[in-house]
Batch of 2 targets.
Target 1
Amino acid sequence: MTIRTSLNPSVKSLCLAAALTTVTLLPAANAADLTVGFSQIGSESGWRAAETTVSKEQAEKRGITLKIADAQQKQENQIKAIRSFVAQGVDAIFLAPVVSTGWDAVLAEAKEANIPVVLLDRDIDPSGKELYLTAVTSDSVYEGKVAGEWLVKTIGDKKCNVVELQGTVGASVATNRKKGFEDGIAGHSNVAIVRSQTGEFTRAKGKEVMESFIKAEGGGKSICAVYAHNDDMMVGAIQAMKEAGLKPGSEILTVSIDAVPDIFKAMAAGEANATVELTPNMAGPAFDAIVAFKEKGTVPPKWIQTESKLYTAADDPMKVYESKKNLGY
Ligand code: AHR
């Protein structure tokens, strides 16, 4: 904006103030012009459904147009969605990658079209790092480690056979949460993972796999603890244990990840012991990064890390349950 020098000082300062206001308001105005395409995995868990809800809320708050494509757990659908977003010329693409490999070609197409990509809640293989702008995720190795360390501390010197319900095969969070837990129990020979299988991050599969673990472990009597890569699988496993006449939360310890409301209900009922929180608000920091990048050219750090907090039955689970209800769940 040009300010004519013939204006008197007070008018000049008014004009300057107006110009500055325009500059200050610019980010919000420009954010409203943005269209973001989000390739979401599906709705396998309560956490995932909350992430979708929160993403919509965060977009609305900023006046950003958000187009969500539900891939129904299939990478091929995610690849199609990304290609469609590129064809539509969106301003940015959010991707929650169902698995960690196989993204190079499609992300190179987005890069070629000058469309920044932000990864949400899961990572891709290191070979693809230059193909996205930033990743908003937790430290999923750390989450597993916190779970393992909690168990080691809780169990003391007692011998403890652990059964593990893994997340989706090939997902970064499944690989990392497994590794983290193994790191957490390392050096404690009394604690060992005796069975480990995918429960695909769903309640139904978590229950089914837990039923087979119980059968294979003599009716479950030799199981000391269940570690699940998410709370939904644990809720299914708790059901399986109860149906088999076992007492989850007392006879068999539980530790899982996400901190969805239902796990706190189970904790309050004495049927679950611990969970590590994963925020469903991945989109908020991602939108902020994209707005700053588009408007000021600010390049975000390669990793925007979200917090991981351990909750146990000592944390007033009913109160946490109530406080979670308005957070997209
Ligand atoms: O990638 C995050 C994981 O995906 C959540 O922990 C799990 O519930 C979801 O399905």
Target 2
Amino acid sequence: MKKFTRVTDIGDLKAAVAEALEVKANRFAYKHLGQDKTLLMLFFNSSLRTRLSTQKAAMNLGMNVMVLDVNQGAWKLETERGVVMDGDKAEHLLEAIPVMASYCDMIGVRTFAGLANKADDYNEKVLNQFIEYAGKPVFSMEAATGHPLQAFADIITIEEHKTKERPKVVLTWAPHPKALPQAVPNSFAEWTVAAGYDVVITHPHGYELDPRFTAGATIEYDQRKAFEGADFIYAKNWSAYADPNYGKILSTDRSWTVDSEKMALTDNAFFMHCLPVRRNMIVTDEVIESPGSIVIPEAANREISAQTVLKRILEGTK
Ligand code: AN0
Ligand code: CP
């Protein structure tokens, strides 16, 4: 595998989940694969889980790991070609990418949507420059339009917990005080549809996601109706995708917060969230602390999705 940004990069999803479960059972069995191989993780944005789980996954595989926080200690990077660099950005991505790539065997990149220019975000302007100019395998650690390592971990978690062959999986929008990208819900929709689940997405009017990611899912504007009979509730906030409101907050309506009363409409559903989560905005204390909340095993599976992806990249570079 040379690139990991979309569900299509992983090939047969059932086979990938089986491989992930095998990795989980024998996580130190592949230590030889990463010997003398170096992973560079590059963060343009904050992270707790992605940083630690991906580094742990690489260590399980015997790799060396370098982490660079671009905004803390490195030169500020210009991403736009053709600009006169007389501002605060001292270095251009076009030099920085091949230089960084020369020190490593693969690069993980976290670069969130700016939410100011929809075309730049949805063309993955930053991530695609890495794919084009690194000359080494590149994987997304959440880029502008997707968070595939999260979605893969979510699928592994659902497969471990489901009691029906084809569970009803509900992605619900929930309120948040800051404008957030659509990356997590895009990938969750794309991967759960690919997994063959009954996928329902519920959100207020105006929060429709890009149909290139949600095709195959049902949109239900009535949150309570969406929750009926659900096996998994996956909460997430996102900002508007549709024009002319791209990147804007249209609602902070706390009647969309996931609470026990709404969970009672489900078929004893598990509660999921990618974390970090704002309690009593997205979900009540009671629901996130309930026995049906699987946010911790979900986060733990980030090590497994990352290790499976790194393992496949290493196998491809041998
Ligand atoms: C980010 C987001 O919504 O994309 C990262 C989630 C994994 N969340 C926040 O910035 C709070
Ligand atoms: N879920 C997730 O990616 O968390 P971090 O932003 O902490 O990496």
